[in-house]
Amino acid sequence: MAPAIKNRLVGTIIIFALAVIFLPDMLDGQKQTRRDIIVNIPASPEPIILQEPQSYSLQEEKLKTSKPITLENDVVANDVNPSDDSFVPNASTSSGNDVIAQTDDVKTNPQSTLEQQTFIQQPNDEEATGWVIQLGSFKHQKNVRELMDKVEKAGYRVFSQPVETSVGKLNKVFVGPDLDKSKLEKSLSHLQEVTGLTGRVTPFTVK
C-alpha cells in the first residue's frame, strides 16, 4: 500500500476517534446550557385575591333602617275650636276600644235636657254664670266612671252629661263648675297629668 494512502487512513481514524470522544461532551454542554436557560426563567407571580365586600340581605337592611313605631288605638284628633261643644280629647283613659266622635252637628236630646237641671251652651261671657273644663266625650259608660273616679280622687268636682250625635249617644265629662275662669285654666296642666287628657275651659250656665 502506498504511504500516502496509509497516512490518509490514519488521519481519518484519528479524526473519527476524536469525534467519538468529544462529540458527546459538546452535545451535553448544549443541553446543559438550554437547561440553565429554562431554570433561570422567573416564576409567574401569585394571583392577588380580592376579598368580596360583605353583602347584607334585604331583611337585615330593613331591620337596621326601620324604627319601632308605637300605635295608640285610643288617640284621636283634637279640634281646638272654642265654640264647638263636641270637644274630643287627645287620648282615652280606658284600655278598651272607646269610640270618640268629633262632629259639628252635635245635638242635645230635648228629653234628656228637660230631665236635667243643668246644661252646657255657648253664651257670651257676660251671660255666663260659671265655667267648666270639658275633658272629653266617650261612648262607653265604664270609661266615664273610671275617668270621674280618677278626677274626684285628685280633688276636683266632676260630672257627666249625655248627648246625641250622628254616631250615637256619647257622654261628656266636665270638671267644675267654677266662677273663676283663670282658676280652671291653671288646673288644665294638672288635669292632663292626672288623666292624660287635654281639656278646655267652656262657659257653664244654670237654667
UniProtKB/TrEMBL annotation:
Sample GO molecular function, one term: peptidoglycan binding
One Pfam family cited in the UniProt record for this chain: SPOR
GO BP annotations listed: cytokinetic process
GO CC annotation: cell division site; cell septum
Signal peptide: none
Alphabetical list of InterPro entries matching this protein: Cell_div_SPOR-domain (IPR052521), SPOR-like_dom (IPR007730), SPOR-like_sf (IPR036680)
Gene3D superfamilies: Sporulation related repeat
Domain SPOR intervals: 125-204
Name of the featured protein: SPOR domain-containing protein
Species whose genome carries this gene: Opacimonas viscosa
